[in-house]
Design goal:
Order of helices and strands: HEEEEEEEE
Low-confidence stretches: none
Strand content: 25-35%
Radius of gyration: 31 Å
Largest sheet: 5 strands, antiparallel
Number of strands: 8
Helix content: 10-25%
Distance between the termini: 84 Å
Structural class: alpha+beta
Mean pLDDT: 80
Strand order of the largest sheet: 4-5-6-7-8
Shape: rod-shaped
């Protein structure tokens, strides 16, 4: 009986020490296999949301509100440059591409 108890106690101690080591790796992987290193993902800047256009007349410049910020022509937001403001749409430029955002259209026009 004492011998059985010692055997149970010894097997429990060994399993507590060995189990974390065994659980760290994939038992089905080849011996020399290593997990591939993750490569950093390229971050994609989200297209700003046009919320409003403010024009006070022909002699004053127009402003656009994008993502809660009031911007004039030439200013930048999230890597996009505001290149033009009209009464109903704005044009953003980034890396040679253009996006026209309209106040009332459901689609964004890319060029």
């Amino acid at each position: 009986m004492v011998k059985a108890m010692v055997w149970v106690w010894l097997s429990l101690c060994v399993s507590v020490v060995v189990w974390p080591v065994v659980a760290q790796g994939d038992p089905t992987a080849p011996l020399s296999w290593q997990a591939p290193r993750s490569t950093p993902r390229a971050t994609v800047a989200r297209l700003p949301q046009l919320q409003s256009i403010i024009c006070q007349g022909a002699s004053h410049p127009c402003y656009a509100i994008l993502n809660g910020r009031t911007l004039a022509v030439g200013e930048r937001i999230h890597g996009y440059t505001l290149s033009s403001i009209r009464d109903d749409e704005v044009t953003l430029v980034r890396q040679g591409r253009q996006w026209r955002l309209s106040l009332f259209a459901a689609n964004v026009i890319t060029e």
